[in-house]
Amino acid sequence: MISIKEAIQLVKIHTQPLLKEVTKPVEKAGSYFLNDDVSSPINMPPFRQSAMDGYALNLHDELAYNLIGEVKAGDNHELVLKKGEAVRIFTGAPVPDSANAVMMQEKVKVNGNIIVIEHQLNQEHNIRPLGEQVKQGNLALKKGTKLTPAAIGYLSSLGITEVSVYKKPNIALVTTGNELIEGGQELTYGKIYESNSKMLLSALYSLKFYDVTIHKVEDDYRQTLSKLNEVIDTNDLVIITGGISVGDYDFVGKALKELEVEELFYKVKQKPGKPLFFGNKQHTSIFALPGNPAAALTCFYVYVFIALQSMMNQEVLELPRVMAKSVSNFNKNGDRPQFLKAIYNDDNVEILEGQNSSMQQTFAISNALVFAPEDVNEIIINDIVETILLPV
Q1: Model pTM score
Q2: Which domains are delineated in the chain?
Q3: Locate the MoaB/Mog domain: which residues (predicted)?
């Protein structure tokens, strides 16, 4: 049995970036990371552009101007202004080359074809210059940038239709257990509704990992062996729940050994989630999580999250940790470090009741995990505690 620190370090060391390139249509590349620098194919804006609704002017020494026309967004004709002439113009419209300032409409009085501005303007006032955001051929976004909705909009505004991104891992979720049945079926004696696959699938989806398949096996060795062999051979990451303990019908560990999966660790000194396995086979990472739901989800956030970020070649691998003031008391039993379900709000954190590894109700309202180290047996109100912030 190893420490939490050792386990986290082993996951970091032995989970490598996929570094596989795929090309995605820009509208489907959200949450991916750029595999290459992207240079702008155009100037943005591609012409001198009005920053507001108003009047484009060819400046002179007077406040009065002759109004000779109008330019709206999308117009592709260019009016030529002499000194002392103006055109009505709208936000985003191309500013004629002969105009050298734009006065906002609120500061203009109009009398037929004569306009009077409130005060003199500086050259290029309220005009967005050609290439203000980015010039043609210059770097638009650098390699490794996460493509947020704003980044997708920006690339689209440059006329870019597809991008090279890092491939995301394809992931298999495997649940084990004869006692598990699907929701909607009659809950007969001895059975429980399966929830781990849906819980972990939701966690993966919330992190924008969508290439996920779900597999279910009964507590049968040959079936377990066959299914694990299949998913390890065809996925970048395999997450198993249940069957990793030492009971007579826990076959996962035995199957992984027969499949020659390299065991990097098995069992971590922590609560919940002690019977946690991590290993590799060729280029596939394998986690076997405890079957208890709260333990499985805790291990996902503390360890699997790191593996996912590493596969995506990210610099920051762990969930954020902050120091927060406890607003509740807690007595820890035993000498294992513990991850406690909690609610974090504005630098305060409430440790919740119901910390058993099977308790999903408490986890359902949590947004954080308080870490209680090995040498801490009691947390009291106003203690400062290390708090892991969970994804929302």
Answers
A1: 0.86
A2: 4-19+168-311 (3.40.980.10), 21-43+132-166 (3.90.105.10), 49-128 (2.170.190.11), 321-389 (2.40.340.10)
A3: 172-310
